[in-house]
Amino acid sequence: MPAPATVDRVEVLVLVDNATDNLSTVPAYVENELPRLVKRGMHRLSGRCLCCAAHGLSLAITAWRGDVERTLLFDTGPDVAVFERNVDRLAFDMGRVDGIVLSHGHWDHCGALLRALEMIGLRNGGRTVPTYMHPGMYRTRAMRMADGSMRPFEDVPTAAMLEQLGARVVHATTPQAILDDLFYVSGEIARVTAFEPGMPGQFRRTDDGEGWEPDTLLLDERFVAVRVKDKGAVVFTACSHAGVVNVLLHARECFAGVPLHGVMGGFHLAGPNERIIPDTVEAMRAFDLATIAAGHCTGWRATGALAAAFGEAVVPSAVGKLYRF
Q1: Residue 15: which of 115, 104, 106, 105 has the closest Cα?
Q2: What share of the chain is helix, strand, coil (3-state, %, to 5)?
Q3: Predicted structure pTM score
Q4: What is the DSSP letter of 190?
Q5: Which end of the chain is less enclosed by CB atoms within 10 A, N or C?
Q6: For position 158, what pLDDT does the model report?
């Protein structure tokens, strides 16, 4: 199993998330959107200066080790307009991006992927961008509606489409240490808990393209993690279709002997999975996390339950926030 390096520090800038929140207080290691907008040059409060929230997730994760600095773009959110607007408002330099990981094959995480590659190429001198994909994420997916009909999802861009825009596509189902070994990309996540069911109602096209088959487990989902000096591993999970407890259990096994410092991303405890909130909260006690940055598809009921159980460790994600570990 590849071993990632220990990094000196990490910064995570939330480019896209479901929520916007400039009013809630935050701990010292987190900065809300407004201070960054002021640094960007905002002289008066105006909606024209603010980022937009949208149903999806995109994180710019930068890690430092000595004089080595690498930035990973983890997903791109659902929509080009939102992604472009937020990158501009936050003055994030897309030329800094050294690689991209797409967490899994859903539209709300890859909607701006092609445009992100274009933006990177315009700023990085034409260097190719390693883009890490699971080979199973390209198949058309759909949700079965209450009337039994299938509502297809927008497809993930093909490897050929990505490479036309400067990507060097890397397909893998097993773990990888990437970008000078500063980042760890998991393999397929083991499903071991009894209560985490995956994504009810999820289907995908059959191999022949003629029908639909159940796809509850979404085995193409992967997480990213960074091992931070004097803290431990910080885990980034975009949607937790595997179940956030399964994600944390898998991460703990991958980082044997290293404490898990925090988890950030979507925990998918909204909708049908609201029924497993109590089991999830109880199981998360075993990890003694210093940071739980719940966002995206976690849902307000789960975020409230996590805050009630874990207090100040819960620092919900919102667009424009900057986390420093």
Answers
A1: 115
A2: 30, 25, 45
A3: 0.97
A4: P
A5: N
A6: 98
